[in-house]
Design a protein that fits this description.
- The complex is a heterodimer.
- By secondary structure, chain A is of the alpha+beta class.
- Helix content of chain A is about 25%, strand content about 35%.
- Chain A is globular, with a radius of gyration of 27 Å.
- About 0% of the residues of chain A have low confidence.
- Chain B is mainly alpha-helical.
- Chain B contains 13 helices and 1 strand; from the N terminus they run H-E-H-H-H-H-H-H-H-H-H-H-H-H.
- The model of chain B has no long low-confidence stretch (mean pLDDT about 85).
- Chain B has one domain.
- Classes of the chains: A alpha+beta, B mainly alpha.
- At the A-B interface, strand 1, helix 1, helix 4, strand 4 and helix 5 of A face helix 1, strand 1 and helix 3 of B.
Chain lengths: ~400, ~280
């Protein structure tokens, strides 16, 4: 099968800072210089400034997408995913490079674009369908299916401003799902709706690709990406870091991000703490493999410098989610320590933690009650999800996600 | 041909940093004609939802305006070529409204629709074209308002075959309104000041156009300056067609038509130049 999208050396540069105010004078100066064939006066004077004043969102991005493929695009926030989708869907033009495409393209960067609150569900289906590139005839042909899929048949002649947000989103997605473009671009729409609806949406996306259509799919939901995509592009700082098989690329994505957060070493002079205790090292060790997912046990390892001997000494470790939720507090056994280097190691078993971002705070305690120092947010790490053979890709909520013994009879 | 070249022939869309500026892309616009009509419908329906008087506003607004100006010119005793003042003003207001509404509403195209434009592609010209068409519908409704007045004052007026030229006049106004509107909207991306300027500029332009006074009132030495305003002949021909009084010549009407075409071309060229990248600025 042939290539339907070819992205060739695409870059996108944004001007930073103020745009608009005070530019009339400089614009006139510029146009005048251009007319008289001189150099741009502002560029010359402010050379350094103009270098600082730009942001390169995409840098020389190239890849191909073959027909019928679901291509996932992953990367951290700010890696350029959305910019890339915007360029492919023609919302904005690339600064350099080309994108060649074959076939009609529809993009879903948002559901319900152009919905008008005063119009009824019926009118909005037609309007939204047309905005997404369908003709009136095509929408009319699909109308019953769309209404059925959305499940808001009863309210189809009610203005959408009276809809609940769930109904609104379902109707919007229903329209989008019934587009029949050769190329479909989807950005994070799975984040909406309830479990049942999400399942419907994912099913629909699978259908689309099995009909020989091509899908570009941007998501932070690695489970969905792993299960839906045949190939994944990893973007990092606006560049293509990796392209390939989903499992491999996703693992590498996790690995890149795990290393980044979870090892801190301090020199003696700038180590946090006070005169009696200083933190020198905080590190996370994964038991097996290289990526920290929910099936991995791991160790939190600390090293401290103590100035005194303590006959009764212990650690108290607090684990918080990134949103500040206190997950647990664990207190070490009480030991006798001498001054100098003290190492602490706390093992967190596999299948206990939920996926997510966490921060660690640790307290050094003497005589079971006196706080020597409380080191807050000494490190943070992310535990990735890992589900195999599952049909549910939404969040599994809860502070922890222990694997427990079940007996079903 | 090699495999590569064959493939190259088949690309249906090539996205590049800039498109050719003389590429008006009319074919694509035609493909989106359903969308234009749906936007017309939306603008038309949504405006008067949840108002008590609803579509009646199409009548009330020109009536009120006419009442105010009629009182005004009665006080200052502006001669109206022996045409009943109220009819004189009403015809002027209705045709002027079409132009001013087209201009004001299309001038907001980019900023008013940034949230849609930021999420999905369709030819951006769809929006201003829809505005011009939905205004045409209000214009037609307002023309109905003129009819009873024509009937009431039938003794004093002389409608004539120039009525057949009214669609042509409307086309001129539509081109000027659209052309200027998209030009302004392209400039407002960078210079928001224009947004504030447009409202009273249109107001001032009305006084520079024979809307509440006849062109014949202008003294001889200012006539040549007044003739520069391409809107004047349109208003005068409209009045002549319905009422039988107006000052114009074939040359002035042709001048208006040429000006309208030029304004439209310049406006659309400017619009096309910015539409690809305006999202980065807004």
């Amino acid at each position: 099968m042939g290539t339907v999208i070819r992205v060739e050396h695409v870059s996108k540069v944004y001007q930073l800072g103020k745009v608009g105010t005070g530019t009339l004078a400089s614009d006139i100066q510029r146009s005048f210089a251009r007319l008289t064939g001189k150099e741009d006066p502002l560029l010359r004077i402010g050379q350094k400034q103009s270098e600082d004043g730009i942001h390169i969102a995409l840098r020389d991005v190239s890849f191909n997408v073959t027909q019928g493929q679901v291509l996932g695009i992953i990367g951290k926030n700010g890696a350029g995913k959305s910019t890339l989708l915007k360029i492919v869907s023609r919302v904005t033009a690339p600064s350099t490079g080309k994108i060649k495409m074959r076939g009609r393209l529809a993009s879903l960067l948002e559901v319900g674009t152009g919905f008008h609150p005063e119009l009824s569900g019926r009118e909005n289906i037609f309007l939204n369908g047309a905005i997404l590139g369908m003709t009136k005839k095509e929408v009319a042909r699909k109308f019953d299916e769309i209404v059925e899929f959305s499940g808001v048949a009863k309210f189809i002649d009610t203005p959408v401003k009276r809809y609940s947000s769930g109904m609104y989103v379902r109707l919007a997605f229903a329209v989008a799902a019934h587009l029949e473009p050769e190329i479909l671009i989807v950005d994070e729409v799975l984040a909406v709706g309830d479990a049942d609806f999400q399942r419907k949406c994912l099913g629909k996306m699978k259908d689309v690709s099995s009909q020989g259509r091509t899908v570009l799919f941007v998501s932070h939901n690695m489970e969905a990406v792993k299960n839906l995509c045949q190939e994944v592009v990893l973007l990092e700082k606006g560049q293509v870091a990796e392209i390939g098989n989903p499992t491999a690329v996703i693992n590498s994505y996790f690995k890149r991000n795990t290393e980044y957060n979870s090892k801190v070493i301090f020199e003696e002079e700038n180590a946090p703490g006070n005169e009696i205790v200083k933190l020198r090292k905080a590190e996370l060790h994964i038991h097996e493999g290289e990526t920290l997912d929910i099936n991995q046990g791991f160790d939190l390892h600390f090293e401290f410098d103590l100035k005194n001997d303590y006959p009764e000494f212990n650690f108290s470790l607090n684990l918080f989610s990134i949103t500040g939720e206190h997950i647990f507090n664990t207190v070490s056994t009480v030991v006798s320590v001498n001054c100098g280097r003290v190492k602490g190691n706390c093992t967190i078993p596999s299948n206990l933690m939920n996926s997510g971002n966490y921060t660690v705070s640790i307290m050094a305690v003497s005589q079971r009650s006196i706080t020597l120092f409380y080191f807050q947010n000494v490190m943070n790490f992310e535990i990735f999800d890992n589900r195999e053979n599952e049909k549910w890709f939404g969040n599994i909520s809860g502070a922890v996600r222990p694997k427990l013994d079940w007996k079903i009879s | 041909m090699t495999q590569e070249e064959i493939q190259h022939e088949e690309w249906t869309q090539i996205i590049e940093p800039t498109e050719g500026i003389f590429n008006f892309n009319l074919r694509e616009l035609w493909r989106y004609r359903d969308l234009i009509l749906l936007f017309v419908r939306r603008d038309f329906i949504a405006v008067y939802k949840q108002t008590i008087l609803g579509p009646l506003w199409h009548f009330l607004q020109p009536l009120f305006t006419t009442a105010v100006y009629t009182i005004f010119i009665s006080i200052v005793k502006v001669p109206t070529d022996e045409i009943p003042r109220i009819l004189f003003i009403l015809t002027g207001v209705v045709i002027w409204n079409y132009f001013s509404q087209c201009l004001v509403k299309t001038s907001n195209t980019f900023i008013g629709n940034a949230s849609i434009f930021g999420k999905v592609y369709f030819p951006r010209l769809v929006i201003p074209i829809a505005v011009v068409i939905s205004n045409l519908m209000s214009f037609c409704i307002q023309c109905l308002l003129i009819i009873p007045f024509l009937f009431f004052y039938r003794e004093n007026i002389h409608p004539n075959f120039y009525i057949l030229f009214i669609p042509f006049l409307i086309l001129i106004l539509a081109m000027m309104g659209l052309g200027l509107g998209v030009l302004v909207s392209s400039l407002t991306i960078k210079y928001r000041d224009l947004n504030y300027l447009i409202g009273f500029s249109v107001q001032l332009a009305m006084y520079a156009t024979p809307v509440i006074y006849p062109l014949s009132l202008i003294p001889g030495r200012f006539k040549s300056i007044a003739a520069l305003n391409p809107l004047s002949p349109v208003v005068e021909v409209f009045r002549y067609a319905l009422l039988g009084k107006g000052t114009f010549s074939i040359e002035t009407v042709l001048y208006s038509a040429v000006a309208a075409i030029l304004i439209l071309i310049i406006g659309v060229l400017m619009f096309r130049r910015v539409e690809n990248s305006f999202m980065d600025t807004v």
